[in-house]
Amino acid sequence: MHRWLCAVYVLPTTTPTEPKHLICGDRAGSLHLYTLHEAKAQDSLRGVHGRNGVTSLLCGQGGVVYSSGRDGYVRSLRVCEGRLLPLTVTRVTGANWISKLITVQGKLLAVCFHGVKLKLWNVEEEQTLLEVECGGAHRSWDLHVCRARGWLVCAFLKDGLPYTFSTSITDKLLPLIRPPFNTQETSALRVFLQQRGETVFVTGGEDTTLRLHALQHKGQRQTLGVQRSHLSGVRALCLVEGTNSTQSDDGSVWLVSAGGRAEFKVCSAV
């Protein structure tokens, strides 16, 4: 089968006897796993990055592979027993075109475009590090990070003339003192559990995500998980305990979320 490939990555091996794998991303937004010197794909994830294609593949720590696409999503996956195992999905806020993924000081960054702006996005902390007005992605451009000096240089052509932009990247990678509940306005909050000095609660916001947090008695907060399934902002949350089941030991708790476009979502909280 003929495929128009957009990105390719050869996975590193840990032992001499381990087979070498090749991950390919194509124009149809699919990911394919190959063993070197074999023409047939071992496994495929079809259309995971939409119809506009995969733009970048990168291997991170622990053998986790990251992929990006023109759908505005960063996906993580792992190769397990000859299969592609999806792990997480992250949407870049305020960008509809991810050009490539890079790592700087151990942090995964996405180089994105939205309108006439180039944006550098911290995938883990979900925040914009910088924006450069360059005229958009449909032009010649390049971005280089000098890791030794902690400096970033962006060059692009605009109106037939070359332009450059440079800035320090080290100060922009400092950790957040207090990360926000959501990347945009938080619209709903519901306490899920309180025990042993710890409070577990859920928030929903205009960034279309549901986030599970744990707040300790010392004021320290940790994000336990993020769910991205709403098409529009989350406006209301409700916890429903138990079901109509005849089982007497049913301790199920269901989280019901409501948002824009008259959308309801129900998921198991335990």
TrEMBL record:
Subcellular location: Cytoplasm
Signal peptide residues on this chain, from the entry's feature table: none
Single GO biological process annotation from the record: tRNA methylation
Gene Ontology CC entries for this record: cytoplasm
Keywords per UniProt: Cytoplasm, Repeat, tRNA processing, WD repeat
Gene3D superfamilies: YVTN repeat-like/Quinoprotein amine dehydrogenase (2.130.10.10)
Protein name: WD repeat-containing protein 6
Originating species: Chionoecetes opilio
